[in-house]
Every structure is written in C-alpha cells, then in structure tokens.
Amino acid sequence: MIVTAYTKSGKHSVRVVGESANLVIKCKQFQAWFDGFDHENMDLRLVNIQSADIFQNGKVIFVKMETLVYHRNREPGEEPRQISGIVFLRGNSVTIFAIAVCEETGEAFVLTIRQPRVPVGSYAYWEVPAGTMDKDDGMRSRVLEEVQEETGLDFRDATLHELGTWVPSTGGCDEQVTSFAAIKTLPARVLEAAQAKIHGADGELEHISLELLSIEAFIAALAQGTMSDAKALASVMLLLLKQAPKMVAEFVKDVVACMSTSQPY
After folding, report:
1. For residue 18, what is the DSSP state?
2. Is 162 in contact with 144 (CB distance < 8 Å)?
3. Which of 103, 64, 102 minimizes the C-alpha distance to 85?
4. How far is CA 79 from CA 41, 72, 166, in A?
5. Which CATH superfamily does the domain covering 93-247 fall into?
6. C-alpha–C-alpha distance, residues 188 and 98, integer Å
7. What is the C-alpha to C-alpha distance for residues 212 and 215, in angstroms, rounded to an integer?
8. Tens of pLDDT along 11-37?
9. For the chain, which residues make up each domain, given as ranges?
10. pTM of structure
11. More confident: 205 or 95
12. CA 25, CA 32: separation in Å to the nearest integer?
C-alpha cells in the first residue's frame, strides 16, 4: 500500500509505503514527527513502514520505519548526500520527581516504583513514575494521572513545576520526555496503604509496586547505579540546573580541574 502524508500546513508531503501505512499516517505520533521535521534542511522522500503495533480498536502504539532522506544544502554539481533515517516512533512522554511528606513526622520521601520491564529483561525495574502522551488531556493532567495509576497517591492538588524536556535517544527514537516535580503532604496511613498494594492502569498489563525512599537514599541509589533509570537521573539534573545553575557550573569547573591533574574528586 502506498499513501501520501501531508503536514498540517499542507506545505510538505511524502509517500508512505507499508501494509499499515493508512493507519500510521493518521496517528498522533507520526503527525507530530512529520510536522516537526526540518523540511528546510532535509529532503524527506519516502517513508517505509516496516512494522506497527496496533490495538484492536485501530490505535497505533509503536512504529518501526525506514526513511529516505537527503541533505538539501549542497554545492553546485554535488550529488545528493543521504542521511541515516531509521526511526522507532513511539511519541512523547512525561515523568515526575514526586515527593511525599509524612504529615505526622515531617519526613520527605521520593516516590519510586518497581515493575516488570521486558525490554531490559527485568521483573522489578526501579524507576520514577512516567507515562506516554497517548491522550489529549495535556502534559500536566497526564503526569498527575500517571502518579495516581502507578502509586495510588492523589497528587492532583499538588503544585506542579515543569523542569524541562529532554531526548533520550536521538539516534533511533522520536521520544521527547518532559520532566515535572511536585511535593505533597500526606498522612502516614495513606502512604502505608499505597505501599501495600499493587498498582497499574486497567487493561495495560501493569504490575507496579510503590517504594518510598528518603531523599538521601534516592540520591545514593542514583550515585551507586543501583537505580539506573534515565528519567530519575534527568529529573534530578534538570532540577539542579533550574534552581542552581551557577552552583552546577562551579562544581563542574572544580571537577574538570581535578581531572586535569589526576586528582580524585
């Protein structure tokens, strides 16, 4: 099957080949990718849909595609130069660095979760709450919904702070992750009850347990590599950069100075 996809402006189009091409060009992941494509500097000539994961209701989840792309800018008489263009299309996501403060003791805990993650072969991968932007209710609503689904804790009346957006794998995936931070005071009984249950969205085959960590334990887990979740690492770094960029810059300078003289840091 060969179909033609158009940007929202109608200014650009491309041929799309593949058995599921007619469904893929209508999905929000493809539309966002195609509309955001740098058409001025890259000549996108063909998209070949190699595979697509599609629910029974026709909703497209993941797409693997190969594109034919060339540099637009070249010297007179120069042959077009091709650009590597294999893409795993999954759409954008949100994640949250959420802190629960115990009402009775004043202790602060970071919300972390454990769940099976087949792509990395782990039955209880340790990470922070996150979710894909597969709904049109906005990033803030989506991240709060994910906290509720994955931890059982209601953060809807907490103040959300947007930390920034980052891209985990530009060499193969379109995903952009937006990190948030939030804090809320909750009774000890609510925190205990949430840790005693298994969480997850109905119908999404999720099996998620909540693990509350002190801030010291959370940072230690990141530093020691026992928690290697990129979402957690990025959220902490974005928080530091947003609140204390000068301090981070000075720290990096000190580290560079130590490394240049082979001194420990």
Report:
1. S
2. no
3. 64
4. 15, 11, 34
5. Nucleoside Triphosphate Pyrophosphohydrolase (3.90.79.10)
6. 16
7. 9
8. 999 999 999 999 999 999 999 999 999
9. 2-89, 93-247
10. 0.89
11. 95
12. 10
